[in-house]
Design goal:
The protein is an alpha/beta fold and 372 residues long. It has eleven helices and 16 strands. The strands form three sheets. Strands 3, 5, 6, 7, 8, 15 and 16 form a seven-stranded mixed beta sheet that branches. Strands 11-10-9-12-13-14 form a six-stranded parallel beta sheet, covered by helices on one side. The chain has a three-stranded antiparallel beta sheet with strand order 2-1-4, with no helix packed on it. Helix 11 links the parallel strand 15 and strand 16. Helix 2 crosses helix 11 and helix 5 packs across helix 6. The protein binds NADP nicotinamide-adenine-dinucleotide phosphate. The site of NADP nicotinamide-adenine-dinucleotide phosphate has 30 residues, from helix 2, helix 5 and strand 10.
């Protein structure tokens, strides 16, 4: 099954103990993973991404909720590469095939996930998809967030219809928080280029204002420097937005922008309702569900007296149909990958860029580690 050219050990990006990226991420030598299930495949990783959730696990921020992680904590749940060996029951792929995979399914046991940011990784056949020949491996590593914004946009369109808004986003105004972030960039492009939003208003911090048009040409109609105003509503007129796409913690800070009669707020970084929390994570202590329920009451309180429809969405890249749509958007160039690419050899740059992911400040697009 495994070819003789597969080495017994490989380089992998890890947190050797709970730590912030800049305090300790390292590239170490680990045993090359092996296929343990007939539906698994082993691939030579060419590129892998680092996401906020992984950095939270790696610094121990969720250890009391999800349990202790095995050390060292291996980073990377998403990557792209070339298949080198397949399990006995794998039929869709063979050695030599170029694939993308997001390796986590629900409930997401983040404490034991990871390991794609390495020279070799194992995934399940059902979680792999073929890479279009012309799309670079590094670009594929932005797919999980693209699936998330596709799913959020679908739901947002349903909510708009439920509020009596017909005709989708044509001619409508949307607001995207953090337009040069890993979620914000695919969101702004999808809403403008695929769904035809009439006007995209987007927020970034001061240094990024001049970069928006260069990095997302023709996508953003008005850029707001969110660091220059105490409240967003000081820069964007209250009630002027049909769809708010909130990618930052504290979605209630964007509520005032939404049209009070028919607006929708899609949140990707708020508190999930308890039922969703139960679906996406392993069982948690009861007070966590109480707090999640309280947060929903808080959101409802903030929206009192309006007909604004609010929802939180957790992306699910294992939904095959949505993954296929996201690959197609990338392959057509409708949504272009926005990323910063750092080689696995450059641990100093990896630590600095992963620190931006962990703090949610300063990064541009997705952090992708290039391995080959
Ligand atoms: N629901 C889901 O399925 C899902 C999926 C992926 C991620 N998330 C969550 O979504 C959030 C963003 O994730 P990401 O992958 O996009 O991370 P990211 O690329 O690190 O996003 C952070 C970006 O947002 C900008 N930002 C920070 N505070 C802001 C504010 N108040 N207003 C506008 N922009 C602000 C930062 O830019 P500046 O440097 O300009 O401040 C930074 O570049 C995280 O909390 C993450 O956990 C949720």
């Amino acid at each position: 099954m495994a070819g003789s050219e597969i080495p017994k050990t490989m380089r992998a990006l890890v947190a050797p103990k709970y730590c912030w990226p800049e305090d300790g991420y390292e590239v170490v030598e680990l045993p090359t993973p092996q296929i343990r299930d007939p539906k698994e495949l082993l691939f030579r990783v060419h590129a892998a991404s680092i996401a906020t959730g992984e950095t939270q696990v790696a610094r121990g921020a969720v250890r009391f909720l999800l349990g202790k992680s095995k050390m060292p904590i291996r980073l990377g749940v998403e990557g792209a590469g070339v298949v080198v060996a397949v399990g006995a029951e794998v039929t869709a792929f063979k050695p030599g095939d170029e694939i993308y995979t997001f390796t986590v399914t629900r409930p997401m046991n983040l404490a034991s996930a990871g390991g794609v940011c390495a020279e070799y990784a194992v995934t399940r056949e059902a979680l792999a998809i073929r890479k279009p020949a012309h799309v670079p491996f590094v670009d594929m590593c932005t797919l999980a967030n693209l699936v998330t914004v596709v799913q959020a946009a679908d739901r947002a369109l349903e909510e708009l219809r439920a509020n009596g808004v017909e005709g989708g986003l044509r001619g409508k105004t949307v607001f995207v928080a953090g337009a040069l972030g890993a979620l914000g960039a695919p969101a702004a492009q999808l809403l403008k280029r695929e769904l035809g939003a009439g006007r995209v208003v987007a927020s970034v911090s001061t240094a990024k204002v001049p970069l928006v048009e260069a990095l997302l040409p023709g996508v953003v109609d008005r850029v707001v420097d969110y660091t220059r105003v105490p409240r967003l509503a000081d820069a964007v007129p209250r009630g002027s937005v049909d769809l708010v796409f909130s990618t930052q913690w504290g979605p209630e800070g964007t509520f005032a922008l939404a049209d009070r009669e028919r607006g929708v707020v899609a949140s990707l970084a708020g508190a999930p309702p308890p039922a969703l929390l139960r679906a996406i994570l392993p069982p948690l202590p009861a007070p966590v569900y109480w707090l999640a329920a309280l947060a929903q009451l808080w959101y409802a309180f903030c929206l009192r007296g309006t007909r604004v429809r609010y929802f939180f969405l957790s992306g699910e890249p294992s939904v095959r149909a949505d993954l296929v749509r996201a690959v197609d958007l990338l392959a057509r160039g409708t949504v272009k990958a926005l990323h910063r690419v750092v080689p696995l050899d450059d641990i100093v740059a990896i630590r600095a860029e992963a620190q931006k992911v962990a703090t949610g400040k300063g990064g541009i697009g997705k952090l992708v580690i290039q391995i080959v």
